[in-house]
Amino acid sequence: MRYLCLIYLDEKQLAAMPEAEMSALNARHLEFNEQILKSGQLIEAEALTPGAAATCVRVRNGRTTLTDGPYVETKEMVAGFYFIEARDLNEAIQVAARLPSAPLGTVEVRPCRDLEVDGVPRKASSKPR
After folding, report:
1. Is 40 left (phi over 0), alpha (psi -120 to 50) or beta?
2. In angstroms, rounded to a whole number, what is the distance separating the alpha carbons of residues 2 and 99?
């Protein structure tokens, strides 16, 4: 089963982190990526730019509106994600708990689902896995 692990971090705390500490954290993530790639659990992982770089897109009544910045006002913003393969939620939680950023913030583990068309489950992506 596929799971999305969203990493929420306090952007001010992250911005205040000394360069050497940030570099060490990034190195731990790269090492972790190699570990879960070898185990077959990693599908994809990315770090994200700060929330201020986000653009929210809303379409209402055929009209598209854009808003700069994150959708919600909160201290913690999504800083990155891991898209993983795990047997079940318990295994996905175990992977999320090992993320190097987990002690700094929150990791949301969310199961992915198929889309149903006329009662038939279909993968949302046709990209080969």
Report:
1. left
2. 17
